[in-house]
Amino acid sequence: MWRFVSAAMGIGNHRIRLQHWIVFQLLICSIQLICASEHSGEGYGDGYGYGGSGGGGSGSLGSGGGGDGHFHHHTPTTYSEISKHVPVHVIEKVPLPIPHPVAVQVPNVIRLQIPEPYAVHVPVQQEIHVPVYKIVPEITEKKIPYTVEKPYPVEVEKPYPVEVIKQIKIPVPKPYPVPFTIYKHVLQKEHGW
Q1: What is the DSSP string of 116-165?
Q2: Residue 17 main-chain phi, psi, to 5 deg
Q3: What share of residues in the chain are helix, strand, coil (percent, to 5)?
Q4: Which of 79, 94, 96, 138 could be disulfide-bonded to 60 (CB atoms 3.0-4.6 Å)?
Q5: Using the 8-state DSSP alphabet, how is residue 108 labeled?
Q6: For the purposes of burial, counting CB atoms within 10 Å of the CB of 43, is it exposed (0-12), middle (13-18) or buried (19 or more)?
Q7: Which residues contact 72 (CB under 8 A, 6 or more apart)?
Q8: pLDDT tens across 145-162, in order?
Q9: What is the pLDDT of residue 71?
Q10: What's 174's DSSP letter?
Q11: Tens digits of per-residue pLDDT, 23-56?
């Protein structure tokens, strides 16, 4: 199998070299054609009116140049361009065989299994909606304890009749004056009395 592959690669390299050689030959032929047209004796003075090599010409400007350097005035004429045949010097015609791709049977074809895209389950994080509850304070009146006067039953001693038999007057002693002696003590002083 590898022999067939290497042979196919050799054929491919030969084709590339042959193509490069053909391009090179075409480039050489184009250069030779340009050189042949310049040296064929056909100057610019014939068609454009700028003056050639030794020959006079008439252009759209109405004046032509001569070989002696003097200008001759002519009547103005209309400009017309006519295609002329340019002789091409052909050196040699070489028929080049152009290679074409040829189908080559390759035994033992190795089939490569090309992976193809397939659907894969990828978990995607989804937004979880969380319920939001707004807390509203409920205003309630605070109960203040207070006392309430309520009548309640109280046991009261009932007065019972007291019978007075006799009233006895008891003498109460009153205070009275009692005489008592007050003695005055005199101390002896310096004056002698």
Answers
A1: ---------PPPPPPP-----PPP-PPPPP-----------PPP------
A2: -65, -40
A3: 20, 5, 75
A4: 79
A5: S
A6: middle
A7: 56, 63, 64, 66
A8: 888 888 888 888 888 787
A9: 55
A10: -
A11: 888 888 888 888 777 655 444 444 444 444 444 4
